[in-house]
# Entry
Amino acid sequence: MSLGERRILLVIGGGIAAYKTLDLIRRLRERGASVRAILTRAAAEFVTPLSVASLTGDKVYQDLFSLTDEAEIGHIELSRAADLLVVAPATANLMARMAAGLADDLATTALLATDKPVLIAPAMNVRMWEHRATRRNLAQLQEDGVLVVGPNEGPMACNEFGFGRMAEPLEIVAAIEKFFDRGDAPQALATPRLASPDPVSAPVTGPQPLSGKRILVTSGPTHEPIDPVRYLANRSSGKQGHAIAGALARLGAEVVLVSGPVALPDPAGVEVVHVETADQMLRACEAALPVDAAICAAAVADWRVASNADEKMKKQPGGEPPSLRLVENPDILATLSHHASARPRLVVGFAAETQNVVEFAITKRIRKGCDWIVANDVSPKTGIMGGDANTVHLITGGNIEDWPEMSKQDVAQRLASRIAGELNATTMTADDMDWDQP
Ligand SMILES: Cc1cc2nc3c(=O)[nH]c(=O)nc-3n(C[C@H](O)[C@H](O)[C@H](O)COP(=O)(O)O)c2cc1C
# Structure
């Protein structure tokens, strides 16, 4: 999609994600948009005016009281000569200043003086994002008609995990394209909606196409006990399943996440049931029914030990090592897919394979009776098990889509959009998701 002749005024805030705006500028310009940039004082601590100017091909605007700037292009004209103002990263401080209507530097003065729509891409530490003050400011900004993209959930520069990562440059570009696509942006802004009736407790912002939908997600490995201290397990980290649960919640779904033992925090805004074994996982899944969709991303152990010992098994000097007799675990994906009374409308399975990935996944979809399968190659060379990136194939009936390598967060987001499109198929498609969607 082209952004030809669109004029973007990019306000860069003073956050660690400021470096990503360099890529954002590049992506916007390669789509034909012209980009002018305002750098706050704090932003200039993170990216240099020279880098920004080199990418925009324009001078960088920093100072409200620069006589040269005012003579060349005044702050009022700067803010009005754009089709859209984009604030990225929108720091907590910048959001607070915008919400309060302050105009104490060039960035906030331009934002207050503008008669053009404003899109913000918040980025901050998860605690700052969840702070009531920020939630209040966010609600105020949304009420004022400011559009919001992100933030995403994920690991942060401060070694914490949660919501607060700035949306990726391409996500911001997609949001800008979607905005211009509407063609009736002023009306959209005239009726701003909050992402949730309770912005303080809402984990997410943005379109809510899954609101009113209940979705079950399984994630992580299962641990099958051998004795009270030993167990059979696998290398699943739960990163993909947890990301999917978070992405679905961000689209407004009521999400129940049944998680095996993982070293991840519970995703915000998601009801989490912690289990250990496949048996417990199945029971938790059945207790969560009815649901509109079930996404089975957990790496459930195929087998468990037939009779696990009540006491720790002792090594006998000179004795034979014990042999373990395994029995098959319940098949959660097949059980949900063939549920007699409460089959979810959409059941999505995962196929983690180390060879013939797509062929095995196609037969698995038919064998298990699920609707879609997300297949990935988990052989050690791919680094997918436990890693942050994933390369998946989405098999939906006769269709096979090969998705390029992307972060697990991005896979989650894309899959969540597809699920929203599927569940709303009769009323809307994923492409219809819009800014003012309740
Ligand atoms: C290393 C470092 C990283 C920071 N990252 C962020 C951030 O990601 N988000 C944020 O809201 N504030 C962040 N801050 C704090 C802001 O820089 C500070 O609040 C500043 O006043 C924001 O200025 P602005 O209003 O120009 O954006 C960071 C500060 C430092 C020192």
Residues 13-17, 40, 42-43, 89, 91-94, 123-124, 128 surround flavin mononucleotide (CB under 6 Å). The radius of gyration is 25 Å. The CA atoms of residues 351 and 364 lie 8 Å apart. The first helix runs from residue 20 to 30.
